[in-house]
Amino acid sequence: MPFIPHTEEELRQMLETIGVAAIDDLFDEIPAALRARSLEGIGPGLSEMEISRLMQEKARQDGQPLCFIGAGAYDHHVPAAVWEIATRGEFYTAYTPYQAEASQGTLQLLYEYQTMMAELMAMEVSNASLYDGASALAEAVLMAVRANRGSKSKRVLIPRSVHPAYRATVRTIVRNQGIELEELPYDAGSGHTDLEALEGHAGEDFAALIVPQPNFFGVLEPADPMAEVAAANGWLTIALVNPLAMALLKPPGEWGGAGADIACGDGQPLGAPLSSGGPYFGFLCTRQKLVRQMPGRLVGRTRDLEGREGFTLTLQAREQHIRRSKATSNICTNQGLMVTAATLHMALLGAEGLARTAAACHANLGRLVEKLTALEGIEPRFAGPAFHESVLKLPMEVAGVLRTLAAHNILGGYDLQRDYPELENCLLVCATESRTDEDLEKYAVNLERVLASRRQGACATMVRFDL
Amino acid sequence: MPFIPHTEEELRQMLETIGVAAIDDLFDEIPAALRARSLEGIGPGLSEMEISRLMQEKARQDGQPLCFIGAGAYDHHVPAAVWEIATRGEFYTAYTPYQAEASQGTLQLLYEYQTMMAELMAMEVSNASLYDGASALAEAVLMAVRANRGSKSKRVLIPRSVHPAYRATVRTIVRNQGIELEELPYDAGSGHTDLEALEGHAGEDFAALIVPQPNFFGVLEPADPMAEVAAANGWLTIALVNPLAMALLKPPGEWGGAGADIACGDGQPLGAPLSSGGPYFGFLCTRQKLVRQMPGRLVGRTRDLEGREGFTLTLQAREQHIRRSKATSNICTNQGLMVTAATLHMALLGAEGLARTAAACHANLGRLVEKLTALEGIEPRFAGPAFHESVLKLPMEVAGVLRTLAAHNILGGYDLQRDYPELENCLLVCATESRTDEDLEKYAVNLERVLASRRQGACATMVRFDL
Amino acid sequence: MLIFQHSRPGRRARAQAPKEKAGLDAIPEQFLRRSRPRLPEVSELQAVRHYTRLSQKNFSIDTQFYPLGSCTMKYNPRGANRLAMLPGFLARHPLAPESHSQGFLSAMHELQEILAKVTGMAAVSLAPMAGAQGEFAGVAMIRAYHQARGDGGRTEILVPDAAHGTNPASAVMCGYRVREIPTLAEGDVDLEALRRALGPQTAGIMLTNPSTLGVFERHIATIAEMVHEAGGLLYYDGANLNAILGRVRPGDMGFDVIHVNLHKTFSTPHGGGGPGAGPVGVGERLAPYLPVPLVDFDGHDYRLLTEKERPESIGRLSAFAGNAGVLLRAYVYAKMLGAEGMRRVADYSTLNANYLMKRLRAAGFTPAYPSRRATHEFIITLKQEAKELGVNAMDFAKRLLDLGMHAPTTYFPLLVPECFLIEPTETEAKETLDAFVEAMVRIREEAREAPEKVKGAPWTLPVRRLDDVRAAREPDLKWEPPA
Amino acid sequence: MLIFQHSRPGRRARAQAPKEKAGLDAIPEQFLRRSRPRLPEVSELQAVRHYTRLSQKNFSIDTQFYPLGSCTMKYNPRGANRLAMLPGFLARHPLAPESHSQGFLSAMHELQEILAKVTGMAAVSLAPMAGAQGEFAGVAMIRAYHQARGDGGRTEILVPDAAHGTNPASAVMCGYRVREIPTLAEGDVDLEALRRALGPQTAGIMLTNPSTLGVFERHIATIAEMVHEAGGLLYYDGANLNAILGRVRPGDMGFDVIHVNLHKTFSTPHGGGGPGAGPVGVGERLAPYLPVPLVDFDGHDYRLLTEKERPESIGRLSAFAGNAGVLLRAYVYAKMLGAEGMRRVADYSTLNANYLMKRLRAAGFTPAYPSRRATHEFIITLKQEAKELGVNAMDFAKRLLDLGMHAPTTYFPLLVPECFLIEPTETEAKETLDAFVEAMVRIREEAREAPEKVKGAPWTLPVRRLDDVRAAREPDLKWEPPA
Ligand SMILES: Cc1ncc(COP(=O)(O)O)c(C=O)c1O
Ligand SMILES: Cc1ncc(COP(=O)(O)O)c(C=O)c1O
């Protein structure tokens, strides 16, 4: 009975107080036929020592490969203070701050988070988080359809340069409400959205246009003209951005003439470890005037009975627990702890630190691309300016190369052909600020050997390297 | 400038307020000839990201071998809650609770610790920690010499079955005060102190007798008769014990007729990770009537102005910051954080949990000894009942065997011949509760092969095992 | 003080940023940001001190009794946190190849199996990131099922009036109309009303059992029969699974699909609002529609199944595989409980709730369903106290905070006036429950003798009662520096 | 409430103990304990909640300004803690063979080198577990040196009257008599008195420079000459190294032996009293006597040297190699600072102290050494306030606690009446220092207008002022259950 404090004596007293003979009696309203027999197949409980050993073995089993995959999840340095403080019991084991006076810690932190995130996006308001970047994009689409009073359309334009898993997620979430996603092609040379194709939709009724920055290929989208086309046609602009990149790149609030209407994305680069894909958090910012269409919680600053500053959940009439079937979203539990970490992360890095980190990623990527394209047969696939990630064309199928690299404990990147059949032999690589020069060199050296050995048709997994 | 918050502007303002032109001027009282030039050879500062990488590599470099060494440091399960709470900033970054009202957390915890430790030892009072077990034994010797009013002697009896490093430490610390340590032999058959030799000292003037339990060989000492001999001769009894073992074994307070006078030892088994040997903590308990001779801090319960219960440092007239050259010890900074961990550890395990842990260690040791002595040529060295550790005699030199085992990532134990030349080919092994049956089996299988291969004179490090 | 007020231009936590600012030459001017965002500029110590002190302003399980009904605020094992944060797990990239994923995937696979067994379902997907997303996925599967059968006329989801707000909201997100079913005086669903509501337009019903009223729906078998007969499916909102873990399995009650709030029943932390995890389980019929990815085991290797292998899936719900770190914590917890431990969760959470209900009743408070057993939670209504003493549930709640206890859930479910939904959980000790009764009695005393003490509460927290109306009327959602 | 008061017979944190109680048959009855020790019997949640709440009753660097003079309460980098607690480091057995120790030993070796360089010493041992043990080791080396030379008549250690209590106590532990040397009005050692005290009986002198008076000993070169001439050696108490890190090296001042409080200057945590680490550094003369173990590097492998390789060593000071985990934290800190960062420690800690002294003086408070520069710390004397307002240093200290700041060190050094020894450290921001001045001014105001506010302080902490006399007269050092 781990975690249960009751002694035999207390059990007896409590049953007596209740007036039953045994715990079984407390379940007497449950029809006998339904009561479960034993939980077959679930083993006996383990002590913390036993499960520790098991988990250590499992963690060890997966090794600690050198990772050059990005594709939506980035291996950034997270200050130790972030998680030492975020996992303090008072943050870790509190819940949604419904009792404001007993939750000023979480509430003030969320208010600070909203401020920081809105600043980073150059937008007017931020909510207190959604699940992840992909589902945040889906919420942004739903919100745009609700909010665009000028449009009757349930159609939204989504570039093919948006992360394929994000497009899939949006599809899952918005499909049942009859929303249609119209894909926009990317320019085969530059890798960014085909502006002509976009302009070809001028005059049509869409609720919104999605603009990723940088896009899935790491290529910078022409966000200004795209936002302008949207504005000119009465479409809302939904920015989908990497928040770390926004320390350096033009933020959604400044796109085009009037800025984007909604900015969303995944907060993972702000303090969340890779952790097999989650928990991360989705963020969503918008204009003040659209705030009542926003999904997710909001914290406001107010005053107490004595006029002191305090913080509380607000504008809850948007939410399911008040508005039920008419809520802006069904979200309830969000990603609070990740936001706690992100707030700490942003406070510790500051604008300067985030900008330096972004710049270091950019520089590392540049160095990596330089090293790899120096190898025979490898060339950059796209001409457009890239950030954070880049697409390389290899002289052979990517999947096999990655497999062999993995056997040498290097995760070489993301095989684009899986999602873009036209991008044959194309590899998406990433090198964050946490990759060292030796790491880059190690990758280049290994890749060279893998290419050579595979060219010779050798069974690569049998080849031994003297590294 | 990591960790320094000053901006350029603030620096300017502050210098202006002080009335100097530059920071250099603040050092103008230091004779110019003394001022250091650059710190040659100390490299540039690393970012947290860089040092993280470096430390991870160093940690990884040392592997995670399967460990059967005890010899004063034991690999016990420590509940995760222990260190998650002990490293909370409020414990981790406070100092000695000189301002009692602002330190009730630490002070109450220390009072609880003193109570728990005294209970475990069945003694009347415990101090709030000393450095480690070895230095605590030295302090106990000094204390005994001070406290034994009936004796004029500066001589103390110390069995050879006491941990050799402890004996060395005591020697370092007490030697300069003219204290003599008289060694007592152990019985070659049983492994515990030779009672006849002890009784041979009857009638002599000693300040104290040290009684280890269990002793360095894991053998149980005849603590009762030893304490009785001491009492009969006017020597104080200093118990040196493993605190975890005291959950099962007869505690110092119950030894002989009247109990030991001082109990000390290393608190490592109570929540301290192995951590290369430290930080651990020394504990020291004694009789109420000897408390003013005790070294180290003491916390007492008292009342505040309004009659509420509160805690404060007390009996400080024993300590260096009040009594200076007449203090009971020079100790100032002690091992507070480890005591915090130990208190949490004892609260989480309770008497039952500690007893079960001790019993599991004992059972594991039994199984290990059984497995190993089943191998050809290995036999138990001592006949006395053992606890926690045991001495095995191998059919060949221990050092080489250990080296080969280490090459297979097994740390097979402690080579006793280093300190006890007469214990030829003798190995001290330990198996705590955190060793699994598979671990024991793995050790036995490997040891068998090592013995076999070394018997055949093969160069063992070249042998490949198919494990 | 806000973190921004500790900020000074040029101040920085210098150990945290990479050193040199490498050339950004490659990026054309028009893509670059013109001015720095106004993030705080503070030292590392300032950030640590600010947020450490902020944390101390929270109530939490680790510091207070937190009987927040429907939320299962039980002890979150510290071991689960530490093990989920082992460096190896933290460093694993979500797109790491199978060769570098067997450890992680094996845990996830076993978790799928454990959840299937404990809920009586055929298959489980760990993809949903919270209860509400589980509901969405569940209803989407119901929809996919009807569509696959060409049964397109089913446009309605039934929901009891006591249901949690996420239930109707999730149904609507799946494109359904919601019809509410009333509750009878003893807390059971009104079967007559249900019968009238069922029809060819019925896609399904969403229920939690025990319901949010803290009572077990006794006619669940009948309801299942009725709904199935009408061609609808049954969705089980697993928020209250803690009450029946190892005692009754939703699958055996007739449910077709279920979500489990791992942050409740499987004790992953609530984290000031999240993250949670809301895995979904289904019977055979709905198995093809489960959201991806799923973890598969071929007897030798573990791997993730995606849309490719699962063409009928409703699809993905997140960019990767959901809240993996939360799933790891739940896995550790499940393994620590084992089969016996799970059953004891239900046993002792039910014991605690019934004990507390009985004692409060004996102390003169009014259970909303006095004829019923409590489950893991129960409701008292403070209607009478409000009328007689002029002190309402909110006042009681705020005064409890002064007495060092988090308030129960107030004013939910909506159909019980002035209500407290009280969930003590199995990890609280008898003396804590006794102290709660004492506090309630004391507050009622105070309400009689010095009502302003209660109505003005809280008095001992960092702030007094906050002005919510002002917060909503003049929303201040973002700090701006003083002009 | 004490943890024992949460205890109930039979309650347990069941996940924490091994399962079955294996047979103890092998152990004869007479060795076994007859009754269980009275440790608390609590659930895991109870333990976590109790100690989490206890922690909140502490002031600490992470939550308050903590200008405790002589203690260097600066920011303890969280990164140092995390890295020292990497599973690999925690799991390493102290007796692991060299084959499994190169990572750890390489860090220790580099730390030895860094400390030697920064102190200007020839060699360093990391063995001592705190400053006081470093002092013991240092004085023991001095003794060993004289003994080795057959210079047995040296029986005295000189110590300035301002010295920390550990200095005389350590000298006595090494078998020396202690002779105090008075201090002059401006804080320097009285050279005349020193001259009179020196002689063939002089083994050495223990000094800290800057002294505990917060001023730099200007005649240190002369002192070194005088002592050396008399045949004595100079011991440097490194508690105040923060003031001169990278600015002046004790070796260059003429010291023969030094300890460094890593928990001060190298920012390892203070942990509510410890652990610390007090490595000792020596010039060539004393190198043979360094305590073991030492870490040696032969260009290829690292290894520990023990008595065997170091026969003249004073010996070991602990069972293994000292407070290894603390040493790892110091190593991380030193590496993060680098050479430049070290110098800045001295620069900015000195800047902060001088700024604060200047501002307090401007506000009407009295520096103990008004003609002198502050070093990293300085003293004010509240003698005048005590006389005129009847409010002493203790009262000021307690009232500061109410205002959210830890008090400076009070009543030490003993020779300055009603003194505050104030050490702000380099990691505190200007606004924090300004707030301290404001608080001091406010308290003086209060002392004039409502002295009971100050004399009755603290008012806002978990307890009011505690009765120390009662604590010492009727020592209650261990809880006993009520009869
Ligand atoms: C009854 C009930 N259903 C559904 C939910 C929604 O779950 P989640 O908050 O994880 O989205 C909750 C809790 O918040 C609940 O209490
Ligand atoms: C000046 C001085 N010397 C020596 C010491 C003793 O150091 P430790 O407490 O580490 O034993 C201290 C601090 O406590 C000190 O301030």
Summarize the structure in words.
The complex is a heterotetramer, with two copies of chain A (467 residues) and two copies of chain C (483 residues). Chain A is of the alpha/beta class. Chain A has helices at 8-18, 48-61, 80-86, 89-92, 104-121, 133-147, 164-174, 195-199, 223-233, 320-323, 336-373, 398-407, 437-455, and strands at 66-67, 125-126, 155-159, 180-184, 208-213, 236-241, 262-266, 282-286, 299-303, 309-313, 379-380, 389-393, 410-411, 414-415, 426-430. Chain A has two domains: 66-75 and 351-466, Aspartate Aminotransferase, domain 1 (Alpha-Beta Complex), CATH 3.90.1150.10; 80-346, 3-Layer(aba) Sandwich (Aspartate Aminotransferase, domain 2). By secondary structure, chain C is α/β, with parallel strands linked by helices. Chain C folds into two domains: 80-337, Aspartate Aminotransferase, domain 2; 348-471, Aspartate Aminotransferase, domain 1 (Alpha-Beta Complex). Helix content of chain C is 36%, strand content 11%. Chain C has a seven-stranded mixed β-sheet with strand order 1-7-6-5-4-2-3, sandwiched between helices. A four-stranded antiparallel β-sheet of chain C has the order 10-11-13-12, covered by helices on one side. Chain C has a two-stranded antiparallel ribbon with strand order 8-9. In chain C, α8 (220-229) links the parallel β4 (202-207) and β5. In chain C, α2 packs antiparallel against α10, α4 runs parallel beside α10 (324-362) and α5 (131-148) packs across α6 (166-173). Chain C starts with 43 loop residues before the first helix and ends in a 10-residue tail after the last helix. Chains in contact: A-B, A-C, A-D, B-C, B-D, C-D. At the A-D interface, α1, α2 and α3 of A face α1 and α2 of D. The complex binds pyridoxal-5'-phosphate (PLP) (2 copies). One pyridoxal-5'-phosphate binds at residues 70, 130-132, 164, 166, 208, 212, 237, 239, 261, 276, 278 of chain C. The site of one pyridoxal-5'-phosphate (PLP) has 13 residues of chain C, from α5.
